[in-house]
Amino acid sequence: MVVIIIIHKLPPQYDNEDKTDTSPICFVTIFIFPSSGAASCQNCKRQITNINIKLTNMANVTIPPKSRAEWSKLISGEIDHKFKNYVLQIRIYQMRKDISMGRLTLDAATTQLYELCCKYSLAVQADCKDIFKTW
To answer: What does residue 9 show for φ and ψ, rounded to 5 degrees?
Structure first.
């Protein structure tokens, strides 16, 4: 399910003598897109169909693609980076330990690391810039 919230600012309305703005500050339109592809407007409860919207996942913009070799090199220890994000540092060390004990494969750990970074893309942005430089 995808939720889109649109905040609208209304133009000023001057209905009184002292020329103060009497318009509401804004109103909100909320669209909920279930997996079926149809949407409903939460303000008027009408069903909205035939909408073509291209949604961009912010993680795709702020996190390097999973195909980059640096992801697996971080886990294997080939890249030794001093992390700014403590949670990311602890999670990578835990993945290294799990791999050495045979509880996790490098591919599975790479997928978990990538998904963690996508979920918290803004929090890990500084580390990604240091490690990956550009993408």
So the answer is: -100, 125
Q: To which residue do tokens 């000023």 refer?
A: 12
Using CA atoms, how far apart are residues 1 and 10, in angstroms rounded to an integer? 29
Alpha-carbon dihedral sign for residues 42, 39, 5, 128 = positive
Q: What is the pLDDT along the chain (135 residues), one digit of tens a residue?
A: 556 666 555 555 555 565 655 555 555 566 565 555 555 555 444 554 444 444 344 455 678 999 999 999 999 999 999 999 999 999 999 999 999 999 999 999 999 999 999 988 889 999 999 999 987
**DSSP 8-state symbol, 120:** T
Sheet containing strand 47-48, strands side by side: 2-9, 26-33, 39-41, 47-48
In single-letter form, the type of residue at position 124 comes to V
Which long-range contacts does 4-13 make (Cβ < 8 Å, 24+ apart)?
4/30, 4/31, 4/33, 4/53, 4/55, 5/29, 5/30, 6/30, 6/31
